[in-house]
Give the backbone structure.
Amino acid sequence: MDLSFILGELGEERENYFNAVSPPIMQTSNFAFRKVDDLGKAFADEMSTYLYSRGLNPTVDILRKKLAALDGAEDCLVFNNGAAALFAAVLANVKAGDHIVCVTKPYTWVQRMLDVILPRFGVSTTYVDGTVAENYFNATKPDTALYYLESPNSWDFALQDISAIAAFAKSKNITTLIDNSYCSPLYQQPVSMGIDISMQTATKYIGGHSDTLGGVLCGTKAMMKKIFDSEYNTIGSGIQPFNAWLLIRGLRTMRVRLETIFRSTREVVAFLKQHQKVESIIFPFDKGFPQYELAKKQMKDAGGLFTFIIKATKREEIVRFCESLQHILMAVSWGGHESLIIPKCAGISSGDFNPVDPMHRSVRMYVGLEEPAYLIADLEQALVKI
Ligand SMILES: Cc1ncc(COP(=O)(O)O)c(C=O)c1O
């Protein structure tokens, strides 16, 4: 399906709302029925009609159609944020006594779910270095129900061989779930590589303006219905119509924003790579990246996130660099219009700071929509203060 059609037209039935170019925000909790039998049908299968907006909502449905098509999937569910989407996807696919194999260092709140919440219900997890696909196979037990992937990871960008892991999982009847937030389906299509559930946080590139949250799951109709009929409706973490409308608006410009971001990122990376205060860069599309070939094979492009390691002997030097930036903001998240940094040492006290460990000296950067020269000038004046 043509990308322009998906982003600009798919799912939009304009004749139903006065040919308005922008769809209406169907801000309703409830839908009324004239016939008792129609109400009965809605009770029997809430995914077949509009009954109550904790389930389906017409504005959200426009977004669902676009996002399913973007991922090349049969269907899609959209949640209030990415963490909620991941929680629902995992919960729907495990039961007491089951085992999960998960890549090391998944997104913080996933780690919390696997380490703190799921063990209360008898679900255990083995973490593996996902850069070697065999580690998933070797950690598999008879009761392994789920493989959890995040490729690339959003700090060190470690990749997993998605097709190899998905093929092995299929042969063992194990469900696969990937956090595809780094690439978005524009730059990586896990469903076409055999993954059962492809997740992305819509808070990042889809929203694109740091003004709303959202989370996306894509997969087969059967998988989405399974999640809708249980976790989606019982936890009640579906997206609200206004936020869905913001995400539809974000989709209109997503392709051009990502293209600009990727182009600028290459310039900023090239600048930092040759800088005397920078030891190294971790960026999947950098030729020196250990999994560069795999990145080229399974990703179309790389987006705006990368990490650089500062040459420093004290935590204070990195603090000085970060606090000297005039335009690049220090904040979590990414995917918006504004460039950001986040230093690893924010979570490490001066006493525990170990300059020998490059990760302690690492700073994650996200390149937004500013001119690269503007960002480079800001980085330069802060780097000289180290
Ligand atoms: C890689 C990754 N996955 C999932 C999430 C969770 O998404 P959200 O913030 O929309 O809950 C984040 C948020 O930063 C993330 O970086």
In short: The mean pLDDT is 97. Residues 81-83, 107, 154, 179, 181, 201, 203, 213, 215, 333 surround pyridoxal-5'-phosphate (CB under 6 Å).
